[in-house]
């Protein structure tokens, strides 16, 4: 599918959701592109997964910010490739460094750079351990099997709005709950 066609389909998918994440964070290797960039030479011309560019452009058009969280040990190659693909300027934060943690540091840095709370972020990655760790921080995290594509985008936005609705419902429940004790305590006083 050509980039333009993917973009218009992605725009339609995004348009179906009332609540959108404020920031969408992507891993690089095996999420945006189908290789480990540490195994490649800077002189090569990289290519993305077939749907990746269309999805990035659709999010951009819809005003959703984007960032990168990658544990690549070769950030110089990664940034050279982002530059060659003409997508480097699309990301408001690019955290590319190897780490012992499974991206908790990456997300803390993204959070302090952008001030976007974790529960307003959506994250795509191909590794279970990153998904597990980052979702515990409150980020809606989606495991991709074959790179980011329109199916993963739809799944991500669905899960994000479900999580947001759950948070809202809990807030309302707490509001009711915190109002009740006053009512009960005054009643109890009457009863006493
Ligand atoms: Mg990866």
TrEMBL record:
Coiled coil: none annotated. GO terms for molecular function: acid phosphatase activity. Gene3D superfamilies: HAD superfamily/HAD-like. Residues 168-192 are annotated as: Disordered. It holds the Pfam family Acid_PPase. InterPro entries: HAD-like_sf, HAD_sf, HAD_SF_ppase_IIIC, MDP-1_euk, MDP_1_eu_arc. It comes from the Eukaryota. Signal peptide: none annotated. NCBIfam families: HAD-SF-IIIC (TIGR01681), MDP-1 (TIGR01685). This is Magnesium-dependent phosphatase 1. The lineage of its organism: Eukaryota, Viridiplantae, Streptophyta, Embryophyta, Tracheophyta.
């Amino acid at each position: 599918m050509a980039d333009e066609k993917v973009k218009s389909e992605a725009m339609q998918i995004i348009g179906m959701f009332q609540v959108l994440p404020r920031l969408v964070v992507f891993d690089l290797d095996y999420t945006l592109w189908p290789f480990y960039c540490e195994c490649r030479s800077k002189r090569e011309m990289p290519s993305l997964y077939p749907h990746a560019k269309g999805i990035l452009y659709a999010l951009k058009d819809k005003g959703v910010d984007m960032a990168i969280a990658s544990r690549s040990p070769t950030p110089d190659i990664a940034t050279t490739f982002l530059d060659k693909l003409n997508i480097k300027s699309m990301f408001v934060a690019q955290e590319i460094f190897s780490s012992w943690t499974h991206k908790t540091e990456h997300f803390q840095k993204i959070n302090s750079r952008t001030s976007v709370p974790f529960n307003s972020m959506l994250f795509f990655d191909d590794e279970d351990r990153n998904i597990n760790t980052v979702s515990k921080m409150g980020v809606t995290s989606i495991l991709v099997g074959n790179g980011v594509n329109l199916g993963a985008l739809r799944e991500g936005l669905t899960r994000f709005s479900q999580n947001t609705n759950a948070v809202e419902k809990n807030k309302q429940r707490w509001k009711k709950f915190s109002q009740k004790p006053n009512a009960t305590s005054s009643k109890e006083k009457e009863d006493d």
